[in-house]
Design a protein that fits this description.
alpha+beta, 107 residues, 5-stranded antiparallel sheet
Length: 107
């Protein structure tokens, strides 16, 4: 679901992501791989190979303050982009919570 959302956002932004090869999950941090001939990383700040530019760090902090999760993109040893990921409540969430409360479920 996460990758589908990222691909949908890329499509809406008129971007055409290129396929990655040799993709490896780094638990708790993100993924690494190769796009074309360039090493790429997609994940949290701890995964990034170099310093995060101030403008991206500021946008990440603002997004986090609103409940989003920042995901950085690095090309080679340069942090080159930022995605802010946020969940949207499902349409029936209020009904489901009310049902659970009525059944005595508490936090």
């Amino acid at each position: 679901a996460l990758s589908a959302g990222i691909m949908r956002a890329a499509s809406e932004a008129k971007q055409s992501p290129r396929p990655a090869r040799g993709v490896t999950a780094v638990p708790g941090k993100g993924v690494t791989g190769t796009v074309g001939a360039v090493a790429a990383s997609l994940g949290n700040a701890a995964l990034m190979p170099g310093p995060i530019p101030r403008d991206l760090a500021d946008r990440a902090a603002a997004g986090e303050a609103e409940g989003a999760t920042p995901v950085y993109l690095a090309k080679g040893d340069q942090v080159a982009g930022l995605l802010l990921l946020a969940d949207s409540p499902r349409p029936n969430a209020a009904e489901a919570i009310a049902t659970l409360k009525a059944e005595g479920v508490r936090r």
